[in-house]
Write a structure and sequence with these properties.
A 6-stranded antiparallel sheet has the order 2-5-1-6-7-8. It has a two-stranded antiparallel ribbon with strand order 3-4. It contains 4 helices and 8 strands; from the N terminus they run αβαββββαβββα. A hairpin with a 2-residue loop joins β3 and β4. It has 139 residues and is of the alpha+beta class. 31% of the residues lie in helices and 31% in strands.
Length: 139
Amino acid sequence: MIREKIEGKRYQQLIEFLATRCNRFAFVENRQLMDDEKLRLAFVDEIMAEIKDQIIDRKIQRQWETTILGESTAFVFYFHLNNVTTQFLKERSNSLFGWITPKLPEDLMFYQDDQCLLAACSHEGFFIVDENLWNSFND
């Protein structure tokens, strides 16, 4: 678990690096934080309009890599990680922890197939990362 703020140029470099190691990413919309679910999902649709054809799935989940909800659920959106979505991630935020409600969806996660290599918990200010991946990034 790492509490380092990844911002600016380092954030841009991390996204580029992850794009060479991962083939998909996800973000979360926690339903318990929604005042109006229909309105919030319309807002998320607007945010992801330019990458909507890159979506793999939208699942309703009680847990993901960094969070376990009690009775509540969240929408977890899964996307292909490619040139289009890499650019989207770099343009939408300037920080790994900048992915946070209400401005954006939360908790970016990056996968190589089914293995999560990096998962952020934006509101708690930490991320978990595969040690070998992190060492490679920092070399």
